[in-house]
Design goal:
The chain is an all-alpha fold. It contains three helices and no strands. The protein has helices at residues 14-31, 38-60, 66-94.
Length: 95
Amino acid sequence: MTTFAEILLHPGGIVAWLVVGLLAGWGAGFVMKGAGYGIIGDVLMGLIGAVIGGLLFAFLGFGEAGFWGSIGVAFIGACILIVIARFVALKRTRL
């Protein structure tokens, strides 16, 4: 029996998480046509995006996807995070 939004962590080490975060953040920054957030910002966007994407995909009922699937999920989550960040930044500049 699985529970809602069960998160299975098989990270393979902190380096693997950083590589996934870097690739997903860089890819999302490139696709979303922004100025980028720098290396640290891209890693953070990718890592936070991995959490968002993991929760979203777990909610939709998808299971584990391996390394490349993790990059895809993190990429989608990072794109969602960039859209949210731009929306919040746009609201802040209008105040």
